[in-house]
Structure formats: structure tokens, C-alpha cells
Amino acid sequence: MTHISPLQWRKSSYSNGSGGNCVEVAELADGGAAVRDSKDPERAVLAFSACAWGEFVVAIRRGQR
Questions:
Q1: 3 has pLDDT over 80
Q2: CA–CA separation, 22 vs 13, rounded Å?
């Protein structure tokens, strides 16, 4: 399990500040990423390996779902 308290979280650039569906992402020491709901940051955090996160980012940039 990755310890998440010292992570630097950043909110999605698609967040409009009006309480919509928002996520926050933090880089993990191993190159992976942690993702959480910005409206409820104390709930579960999803952690992804560097490989899985990289594949996700490439797919998003290509417009894949």
C-alpha cells in the first residue's frame, strides 16, 4: 500500500470550481499516479502503476475512451 499523506495533489484542469465532477491526481514515487475525488478526499484513493497511468494518458490524448 502506498502512503498518500505527503502527496502533492492537483485538481483536474476541467474542474470549473462549481462543485462538479472533479478528480485530483498526485504523482507517486515509482512514477505511477494516485487519483481521488476532489469533493471527498478522505475516501478511497486509486493507485496506478507507471505503465498503466502512461497507457491511460496516451489513450486520452488520442481521444480514446
A1: no
A2: 9
Measure the CA–CA gap between 17 and 61, rounded to whole angstroms.
24
Instruction: Give residues with Cβ within 8 angstroms of 35, minimum separation 6.
Output: 23, 24, 25, 45, 46, 47, 48
> Residue 7, SS3?
coil
Q: Is residue 54 part of a domain?
A: yes
Alpha carbon distance 36, 13 (integer Å): 14
Cα–Cα dist 47/50, whole Å: 10
Confirm whether 3 is domain-assigned: no
Q: How many domains does the chain have?
A: 1
Q: Which domain holds residue 48?
A: 10-61
What confidence tens digit (pLDDT) does each residue in 18-57 have?
666 788 999 999 999 999 988 888 888 999 999 999 999 9
